[in-house]
Write a structure and sequence with these properties.
The complex is a heterodimer of chains A (296) and B (313).
Chain A (H helix, E strand, L loop, with lengths): L2 H25 L4 H5 L2 H11 L3 H7 L4 H8 L8 E4 L5 H10 L40 H14 L6 E6 L6 H9 L8 E7 L2 E2 L2 E2 H4 L5 H7 L3 E6 L3 H13 L5 E6 L4 E3 L2 E2 L11 H17 L3
Helix pairs in contact in A: 1-3, 1-6, 1-12, 3-6, 3-11
Chain B lengths: L3 E2 H15 L3 E5 L9 H6 L4 E3 L4 H13 L3 E7 H5 L2 H10 L5 E7 L15 H6 L5 E3 L4 H13 L4 E6 L2 E2 L15 E4 L4 E5 L3 H14 L4 E5 L2 E3 L3 H10 L3 E8 L4 H11 L6 E6 L9 H7 L4 H14 L3
Parallel strand pairs in B: 2-3, 2-4, 4-5, 5-7, 6-7, 10-11, 10-13, 13-14
Antiparallel strand pairs in B: 1-8, 6-12, 9-11
Classes of the chains: A alpha/beta (296), B alpha/beta (313).
């Protein structure tokens, strides 16, 4: 990839962060920490890696039901994306608004009654969600099912799934880890948001998941460990996935909860802090300066 | 009369329908022989996915397959599969993923294997889930015809399959009508409302009861959810009382579903729920277990007589 692409993606990631914080701030509640740690991963998927933009024109401006039917038609050859750590979804909604999948105005509906933008993602209410998640440890199995279906149907699309590190406490994650290699699902990419913290403390305090790399290797996956805030490393990791056949891929992405960029985290990297005006303004200013540092 | 477990009919229907429905798939949890999906595996190995003893993962995978266009049957024993409640709740029901959850060996009939293997709370669990349909066939013909409906429907379904051998009570030309109860024996003294393997016992009991001068109406509820409100309403109005009969805990199962309708309709009539009375099962020959729980013909007859004597209308 060229430096122009990287710059573009880095700038988009800043936009997604600003929009995410603003959206959660306006909603009055939400998980800013786990939403911000996955921004670079989400940005790299939606604006670079996945083939969604190819189908965007077919749903843009259409009514909600038509959008849903088109987007969820099993024959549509689009990549699938499951955000298994469903509480991180606000940054996904933000990136969809920036990408033109939904109107920016709709972000004001987050967590409001009757909204398509539920606190945790719901597939039946919203087209751009490939799995109802939030009860942790389930999305990765749905993603596995998509990948298995695509193999059985002789299809070429890929399936991406973001799993939390806290979520990796769940036994079902390891059932999926055990079973995907059996079916040689090289069309399946799990990305672990390894931000080292979960709801009530660090992974080490609550439930240590290390050595994570060795665990996935022992389960016979193609394992990569990268800096999950480094766009270049993310894009390279996806390219490496293309080179390895007959094995599912897991990218362990080292991240920081609440990451804003420039070694700064939002509100101490808290899980779901109540955002006040002061912290909101501070983060907006910081992100504006980060944007400048990218040469915007 | 030939007695055969309905799971045999389920396995046969899967293979027959599999030929004309390429979207049918099986997700197995290391129980293909007892759940009768082994023949499907032999015939359509490319659509048979062995997930080992990972029921939770298998349910999620089933959801992914279903959303991708397959009609997957995720199969295990009733107790194990419905024990993965939150996976069925979220990955299947909230997702509206058209998965068929198949719970075999429902009820006491697994016998000697004991309590941990008996699905006695599964109807209660599945009935309480939004978007879920609950079906239970009573004999081979009904299983075969019900399966035709199941494969063409695009909704989540819980299919409860028994192990005990039963004869055919329905005629060869039987047509399965979703959501409609079936009156198998006419009578106006009281109604025995049953489902699954217990329907056979209800019919046998009705013959004995007739000898004692009690004319029972026997109703088979193959669709436990959504339940046939009208047939229950009619039974409540036209008979002196309703006796529900199920191979399941009396809490939350068919009996509860019937009582809910009778109460909601404001019909004042006694409803006696009969089944396993809020206890776990235990090891034993199925015959001995059904006798102990008074779910064999003799036990049911004596309970119905007791109930009938108390009816005032």
């Amino acid at each position: 990839m060229d430096s122009k692409t990287l710059k573009k993606l880095n700038l988009l990631a800043v936009e997604v962060r600003v929009t995410t914080i603003e959206t959660i701030y306006r909603a009055g509640s939400g998980h800013s920490g786990p939403a911000l740690s996955i921004v670079d991963i989400i940005t790299s998927l939606l604006f670079y890696r996945m083939n969604w933009d190819k189908y965007l024109k077919d749903v843009k401006g259409k009514d909600a039901l038509k959008q849903w039917r088109y987007w969820h038609d099993p024959i549509l050859q689009r990549d699938r994306f499951v955000i298994s750590k469903g509480h991180g979804v606000p940054s996904w909604y933000a990136s969809l608004a920036i990408g033109g999948y939904i109107k920016t105005k709709e972000l004001q509906d987050l967590r409001k009654i009757g909204s398509r933008l539920q606190g945790h993602p719901e597939r039946k209410r919203f087209p751009f969600i490939d799995g109802t998640t939030g009860s942790l440890g389930q999305g990765q199995s749905e993603a596995l099912g998509y990948a298995l279906a695509k193999k059985a149907q002789g299809r070429k699309e890929k399936v991406y799934c973001i799993i939390g590190d806290g979520e990796s406490n769940e036994g079902q994650v390891w059932e999926a880890a055990m079973s995907a290699p059996k079916f040689k699902l090289d069309n399946l990419v799990y990305i672990i948001d390894f931000n080292k913290k979960q709801s009530e403390g660090t992974n080490k305090e609550i439930m240590d998941i290390e050595p994570l790399h060795k665990k996935w290797e022992a389960f016979n996956w193609h394992v990569q460990r990268i800096d999950g805030h480094d766009m270049k490393q993310l894009l390279n990791a996806y390219e490496e996935c293309d080179k390895v056949n007959d094995k599912p891929h897991v990218i362990i992405a080292d991240t920081h909860k609440g990451y804003l960029g420039n070694r700064q985290v939002f509100m101490g990297g808290g899980h779901n802090p109540v955002i006040d005006e002061e912290n909101f303004q501070k983060s907006v200013e910081l992100l504006a300066s980060i944007k400048k540092s990218y040469g915007a | 009369m030939e007695l055969k477990p309905v799971r045999d009919a389920f396995g046969e229907a899967l293979v027959t329908l599999g030929a004309s429905h390429p979207e049918i798939a099986v997700v197995d949890c290391d129980l293909s022989a007892p759940t009768k999906t082994a023949e499907f595996n032999n015939t359509f190995p490319e659509r048979f996915f062995q997930f080992g003893i990972q029921e939770a993962n298998a349910i999620g995978v089933g959801a992914g397959l279903a959303i991708s266009g397959f009609r997957p049957f995720v199969c295990s024993f009733a107790c194990f599969i419905t024990g993965r409640y939150d996976q069925i709740r979220i990955s299947v029901c909230a997702n509206e993923a058209p998965v068929v959850i198949v719970g075999t060996h429902a009820g006491l009939a697994i016998g000697k294997d004991g309590a941990t293997q008996m699905g006695l709370e599964d109807v209660n669990l599945m009935r309480g889930l939004p978007n879920m349909t609950v079906l239970q066939p009573a004999d081979h013909i009904e299983t075969r015809e019900m399966m035709k409906y199941v494969v063409t429907s695009r909704h989540p379904i819980y299919l409860r399959i028994g192990r005990q051998p039963v004869p055919n009570m329905n005629k060869e030309n039987y047509k399965f009508s979703f959501g409609k109860g079936v009156t198998l024996v006419k009578g106006n003294d009281l109604a025995i409302i049953s489902s699954g393997g217990m329907v056979y016992i209800a019919i046998e009991a009705a013959k004995e009861l007739e000898k004692k001068g009690i004319n029972s109406r026997v109703i088979n509820i193959h669709t436990i959810k959504p339940i046939d409100r009208n047939i229950i309403k009619k039974a409540a109005k036209e008979t002196k009382g309703i006796f529900t009969l199920e191979d399941h805990n009396i809490i939350g199962g068919l009996g509860s579903a019937v009582a809910e309708i009778v109460a909601e309709e404001g019909i004042i009539t006694p409803v006696k729920r009969w089944g396993v009375r809020d206890v776990f099962g235990e090891s034993g020959d199925p015959k001995d277990l059904y006798r102990k729980h008074k779910l064999d013909k003799e036990g049911v007859v004596s309970e119905v007589v007791k109930f009938y004597k108390k009816l005032k209308k």
